[in-house]
Design goal:
This protein is an alpha/beta fold. The protein has eight helices and nine strands. It has a five-stranded parallel β-sheet with strand order 1-3-2-4-5, with helices on both faces. Strands 6-9 form a two-stranded antiparallel sheet. The longest helix is centred in the C-terminal third of the chain and has 24 residues.
């Protein structure tokens, strides 16, 4: 008992800082940089836990890196840490990206595995206190497993929400885009990267690939005549139209949405826990 009391006291004192604030109100907390003793004070029932989600290996045409989505996730996690009282975990770098597997280096989990990975990470952390989790999501196909994960966690009294990337970006994109069609490694995504990390963009290799998509979910292919949307480059859209100014508009709109999502999550009622 004495050790348990000492652990709590030391952890709380160390994280409260000179201001004397409780750990739950502290900013700039990356969970992986703390010991388990400190984590005991950090992971409280009122804590909002942010889990960045960004593919580390997913094609984005010849002009962007495979880690493009991870760069986005890291960027928005950094800004969220600086602006909100949240705890941020290391990112999930493998998830559900089936549309890009024709392009070397790209990876994907099955929908069920992506759902289960998300659920198990959240469930592991929820056992220590937190009940509200936000997946800072930088993908489109990831929405389906995230929806399923949220449904699986709700009966446990755990609230999981996530960034709806398309819904957040489309109102601004509709006003500024010039490309005729597209949504991957395109004018919009390339513009965002020019604003966030211009060194990671090689505009000399940017291309226009705007084939009309067949009905149903978009799945890119390098094989002419194969099922899916034919794109020899891995781009769907016109990356040559990208500009820093368009990127700034998209990035700031998305960050505003993330801030609003986190603020709403903080006060949202928890789902009722099922009695078994």
């Amino acid at each position: 008992m004495r050790f348990s009391w000492l652990v709590s006291a030391v952890a709380f004192a160390g994280l409260a800082g000179a201001s004397g604030q409780a750990p739950a109100t502290a900013k700039d907390i990356r969970l992986e940089t703390h010991s388990w003793v400190e984590a005991q004070a950090i992971l409280r029932p009122e804590t909002v836990v942010v889990i960045p989600l960004g593919a580390a290996l997913k094609e984005h045409g010849p002009h962007l890196k495979l880690r493009n989505d991870l760069t986005l996730a890291d960027y928005f996690a950094d800004r969220t840490l600086s602006s909100s009282a949240v705890v941020v975990t290391p990112p999930l770098t493998y998830h559900f990206y089936p549309a890009f597997l024709d392009y070397p280096g790209s990876t994907s989990l099955t929908l069920e595995t992506a759902r289960d990975v998300t659920v198990q990470v959240v469930r592991s952390l929820a056992r220590y206190g937190p009940r509200r989790f936000y997946v800072l999501n930088t993908g489109i196909s990831t929405i389906r497993p995230l929806q399923a994960a949220a449904a699986a966690l709700a009966p446990e009294g755990v609230l999981l929400r996530y960034t709806d990337l398309a819904a957040a970006l489309e109102p601004v994109a509709a006003r500024i885009r010039q490309q005729e069609r597209g949504s991957h490694a395109d004018e919009i995504e390339t513009s965002m990267m020019l604003y966030i990390d211009p060194a990671a963009v090689n505009m000399k290799l940017a291309v226009k690939d705007v084939a009309e998509a067949p009905p149903g979910p978009v799945r890119l292919t390098r094989q002419l005549g194969a099922p899916g949307l034919y794109s020899p480059s891995g781009v769907w859209g016109d990356a040559t139209l990208a500009t820093v100014d368009r990127g700034r508009a998209m990035v700031e709109a998305l960050f505003s949405t993330i801030q609003e999502d986190v603020a709403r999550l903080r006060t949202a009622p928890l789902p009722a826990q099922s009695v078994t």
